[in-house]
Amino acid sequence: MAITLVRVDDRIIHGQVLTQWTRIYKCDGIIVVNDNLSENKSLGNVYKNAAPENIKVHIFSVEKTIRKLPEAIKSQKNYFLISKTPLELKTLLENNISFGNYIVYGPSSYRDNTTTIGANQSLTKDEMDACEFFFKNNIDIDFKLIPNKKGFKWSEIREKYY
Fold first, then answer.
1. Angle formed by the axes of helices 62-74 and 86-94, nearest 10°
2. Of 56, 88, 116, 119, which is most buried with the most CB atoms under 10 A?
């Protein structure tokens, strides 16, 4: 499989992704799935320019990701798949687009309608429902900001919320 890391991160592409996660998982390119960002070319270019030259960044809508991800999976290149929330990934799975059985959930900032479940981890009810959906589909979620820091798993905390 050419998808080496699936990550939910509300900052999408930033220094920790480029300097730490690329040391752990092979990465020739990053596929960002986010409808709003795919329509905002200026902001999209900021993310594209943040990556080093050897890592190509593709920013797709959910609909385009459904079409393009199977091609990426068949390729010889290694990709990170990053979404801002788990909702995009849930939509991919609901459309029979498999991306593996492991998600690393990075930072998710506090918002008015969120519940804080851990350090730098605040989720909406819909986001927790998506995590539960993944759990029931045998996809492991590891809440982990950086590779060498201990995180926690959705399977360890889910009973507090369900």
1. 70
2. 88
